[in-house]
Amino acid sequence: MAIIVNLDVIMAKRKMSLNELSSKVDITLSNLSILKTGKAKAIRFSTLDSICKALDCQPSEILEYVKD
User: Fold this and answer.
1) What is the pTM of this model?
2) Domain enclosing residue 32, as ranges
3) Is residue 36 a contact partner of residue 18, using CB atoms and an 8 Å limit?
4) Going along 1-68, which residue ranges are E strands?
5) For residue 27, what is the domain's CATH number?
């Protein structure tokens, strides 16, 4: 897939754990883990909005398009 999820990088920069982000965004650990590992097939804009608010970042810092 040409979309790369950099959630783990942003979380490390913000020194935020998966548990902490899960509680702030109100997403289950398993769903957040799927997103973090890049195994998710889709993400809701509301979820992306909540993650960006919690991590104080832009969507482009989390999602990256890489040409084949």
Assistant:
1) 0.90
2) 3-65
3) yes
4) 3-5, 63-65
5) 1.10.260.40
